[in-house]
């Protein structure tokens, strides 16, 4: 995966009004972000996934799949891309529903340009955090999978709070063998302390 620079952030605009899309493109590009535009939720869903920090500026009222429908489908598919909703209707119940489902902001057209740019900046920062968290988990998963099956067993016992002699009794091995495995585990997982190892296990959801 290539390194993503600040300028690589991409704002996806989903709105069925071509004039609105063009106006949003001009505004967003003038702030240094790249844009991709889509006339419908279906068109957006059919496009390749963007491998860069991303935000979706999404019209609530779309033909076919609505903005809320698209948000729901993205959530169900595990897509965490932050969304900034736009609406010309000031639909309060829909805005509450969108925000509860994780939307960054819900802005009414004609949108205040600075409010929109601020919301996009917040969304991009959130997406960067999401991507970093995923990268960290992938890295931890690779380290965990480098452990032998016995080392994984010992690690599970260690992070559950058992002492070496208790682990030895549980796994029917010697205490020296437990210490040997613990040394390998700490090295392979790059853990500087037991607390580090416990945090890693929590990130990996190891109990």
Would you spell out the secondary-structure blueprint of this structure?
Elements: E1 10-14, H1 18-30, E2 34-38, H2 41-46, E3 54-59, H3 67-76, E4 83-87, H4 92-100, E5 105-108, H5 113-145, H6 149-159, H7 164-171, H8 175-189, H9 194-203
Parallel strand pairs: 1-2, 1-3, 3-4, 4-5
Helix pairs in contact: 6-8, 6-9, 7-8
Key features?
207 residues, Rossmann fold, elongated, 5-stranded parallel β-sheet, Arc Repressor Mutant, subunit A
Give a short summary of the structure.
This protein has about 210 residues and is of the alpha/beta class. Helix content is about 55%, strand content about 10%. It has 2 domains: about 5-130, Response regulator (Rossmann fold, 3-Layer(aba) Sandwich), CATH 3.40.50; about 145-205, Arc Repressor Mutant, subunit A, CATH 1.10.10.
Give the integer mean of the pLDDT values: 91
CATH topology of the largest domain: Rossmann fold
Instruction: Give the CATH superfamily of the largest domain.
Output: Response regulator
The largest β sheet comes out as:
5 strands, parallel
Strand order of the largest sheet: 2-1-3-4-5
Order of helices and strands: EHEHEHEHEHHHHH
Radius of gyration: 23 Å
CATH architecture of the largest domain: 3-Layer(aba) Sandwich
Instruction: Count the DSSP helices.
Output: 9
* Portion in helices: 55-70%
- Secondary structure: number of strands: 5
Strand content: 5-15%
User: Structural class, please?
Assistant: alpha/beta
Q: Tell me the distance between the termini.
A: 30 Å
Count of discrete structural domains? 2
């Amino acid at each position: 995966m290539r390194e993503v620079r600040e300028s690589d952030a991409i704002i996806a605009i989903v709105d069925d009004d071509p004039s609105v899309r063009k106006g949003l493109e001009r505004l967003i590009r003038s702030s240094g972000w790249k844009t991709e535009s889509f006339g419908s939720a279906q068109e957006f869903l059919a496009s390749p996934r963007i491998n860069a920090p991303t935000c979706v500026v999404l019209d609530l009222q779309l033909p076919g799949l609505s903005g809320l429908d698209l948000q729901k489908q993205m959530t169900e598919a595990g897509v965490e891309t932050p969304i900034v909703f736009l609406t010309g209707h000031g639909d309060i119940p829909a805005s509450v529903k969108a925000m509860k489902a994780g939307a960054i902001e819900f802005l009414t057209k004609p949108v205040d340009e600075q409010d929109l740019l601020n919301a996009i900046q917040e969304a991009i920062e959130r997406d960067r955090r999401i991507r970093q968290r995923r990268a960290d988990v992938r890295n931890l998963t690779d380290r965990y999978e480098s452990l032998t099956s016995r080392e994984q067993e010992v690690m599970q016992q260690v992070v559950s709070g058992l002492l070496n002699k208790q682990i030895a009794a549980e796994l029917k091995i010697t205490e020296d063998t437990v210490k040997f495995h613990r040394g390998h585990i700490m090295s392979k997982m790059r853990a500087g302390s037991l607390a580090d190892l416990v945090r890693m296990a929590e990130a990996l959801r190891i109990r």
